[in-house]
Specification:
Helix content: 55-70%
Oligomer: single chain
Strand order of the largest sheet: 1-2-3
Number of domains: 1
Distance between the termini: 19 Å
Strand content: 15-25%
Order of helices and strands: HEEEH
Number of strands: 3
Number of helices: 2
Shape: rod-shaped
Radius of gyration: 27 Å
Structural class: alpha+beta
Length: 128
């Protein structure tokens, strides 16, 4: 009878070790994704078409003829909104940085979740 019980605990230990190994592998893959991320930035990019200061310009009569697009990057700094105008090529770089920041948040959240699962599995393994 004891031998069966010992076999069960060894089997459980191997299962827990495999589980920890799987968590470690997933965590390493997430770390690799972090290394591949480019620059990150917070904020948002908006495209705007504007009317000019000349009252006789067509942009005042026909909304489809407004000037633009003009690209604006907006972010919060210490509770205050900051906005900057960007040219199209810079706007693309900032948009990529914003996407990278969202990816960074998602990866970090997943890493936190995996860490907790690994901690729980390690605790179960140590309680044997």
């Amino acid at each position: 009878m004891r031998r069966v019980k010992g076999n069960r605990s060894r089997a459980r230990r191997r299962t827990e070790d495999r589980e920890l190994s799987r968590y470690r592998d997933r965590y390493e893959k997430l770390k690799a994704k972090l290394r591949d991320l480019g620059y990150v930035c917070l904020g948002s990019i908006t495209r705007r078409w504007l009317t000019c200061g000349k009252p006789s310009c067509i942009c005042h009569q026909d909304p489809s003829r407004r000037h633009g697009p003009y690209y604006h990057w907006t972010r919060k700094v210490r509770g205050r909104t900051q906005s900057r105008m960007l040219d199209q090529s810079l706007a693309r770089l900032y948009e990529q940085g914003i996407r990278n920041h969202k990816s960074l948040d998602a990866i970090l959240n997943r890493m936190r979740e995996l860490s907790l699962l690994a901690f729980q599995a390690a605790k179960m393994a140590s309680n044997r």
